[in-house]
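Entry type: protein chain
Record version: 2
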Amino acid sequence: MAYENKMGPELQLALTYYQTSLATTFVQNTGVSLGDGWELVVKYHGDILVPAQSVGASVEVLSESFASVEIEPEEIEDFASFFEIEYMDLPKRMFYIIRESYGKACITNVHNVSPYNLRGEGVLLGIIDSGITYTHPDFINADGTTRIAYLWDQTIEGNSPVGFDVGTEYSRERINEALDQLTMEETYRIVPSTDLIGHGTAVAGVMGGNGRASNGREVGVAPEAEFIVVKVGMEGGIQTPRTLEVMRALKYILEKATSMNKPVAINIGLGMVQGGHDGRALLELYIDQIARRWMCNIIVGTGNQADRANHTEGIIEDGEEREVQFIINTGLGFYALNMWSSFIDTLEIKLTSPTGEETDRISASRNNILYELGETIILVNFSGPSNINADQQISVFMESESGSIDSGIWTLTIYGVSIISGIYNIWGATSAVTGMETMFLQPNSFTTLTIPSTSSLVISVGAFNPYTNQIIAGSGRGFTRDGRIKPGLAAPGAQVTTTNNQGDYSMATGTSIAAAFVTGGAALLMEWGIVNGNDPSLYGDRLRVALLRNTRRIVTDTRYPNQSWGNGAFCLEDTLISLINR
């Protein structure tokens, strides 16, 4: 296949097998189908409309160098031949990463004590998540009006926002009209957006719930801020959100914040494991570009995969063989492994099934190859270097025509053909897909940050238990594969009381909750600096560095920065004191 270095592994394999009766589950998981145009995320330079028009593709520009392109599959190789096209891939599936806590985050005094008295007025909270229960009292003002400036539900076909072709946008006025109705049935007829999962509603409550459902007891970090909410997903809401939906949401929120002339703190409540964990995934490169467009900070939890045994790593010597074993649970229909190594090393691999059947020894010279071992179909791709990442990626996808991969212990044999570095990292599919019983037999809990928390310009947040001062077991640990310090800091993320999608409160745990504390805190810093005029440049790198520099090191018998806590525990008051006294 020509121009493989411009295509992601899933795209290469989909082009190879989508017209055959083989690898049907893999093709379905990529979201492509016969007879339809394929939606690609493309990194480009120059004018993308020229190559797009030449192959009859339609374009949705996301920024000056990223776009969504809908194209017929038979035109993709011709499209890749244009020099304007740097790299492209199919959108990746993503998954949700779900009053002692407020004291440990040093928030209480910031609300109520001079010279602070900060509550988020004049600042926007952006939420990219499963939606929001907009009828919850904590997101409604005392006069009965909504605190949500805009709600874009990407899953409801209808009145899409200007500049976008998917979903339905609900303005503040439309939401207020819905809230004025006498019955919930009438309310949801006018604005039918719901948060069925409850993840986005829980995050919103920590970020900025005003406590009206609890008579002011359960108050979020920025209770007077306004919300811009994007419920991410595909129209119809059938499948999990993809990277493309998140990219659209970021563009939308920043455009709205710019038009409202207000600073915004954005929380992304999703993550994935596919990628190099080095900040070079397409989504992360897009974030790093768009994050400098406005007065904003983007905050992401590090995910909850550290204790899920879906990462392993090692070092292989020249001429050595290393075996990596993993268990496939009964009834699993699809599984993926992604191995990353230095471009200076030459590796080959072999897979052995639980019954002892083996593939050949596979090298980069035999790319996009398919094997059948027992009930299992195996697809293998070697990629790299590319224009977005110079390292080598080896991708293995497993599926079964019978609906169940051969269960038991599989062995991945790695051959060190020509080795200088020798370091390799392997990530299996997230536990949200596989369950807890599919795992590596010798896992490593470090470098388990989910993407996009490894992005250079986001504030990445781990989670600790405020009652025990311990990092929670699942909190994604660093560092990044290229050695950068992530997480940046940790925040309370265990048994936190917050809003639920039933109009009441529940306990929530996870790095999304921890990230919500930091998102609300970023909003209060923006209120102090930008809205109140104390520091009009307090956003972006300046705000991020202020937070990281003023963490508390509540566990004293460890070195900082470290792979669990990053630079330490989030403390909003210490950050403000430092800014005031500088």
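Comment: The domain at 96-306+451-547 is CATH 3.40.50.200 (Rossmann fold).
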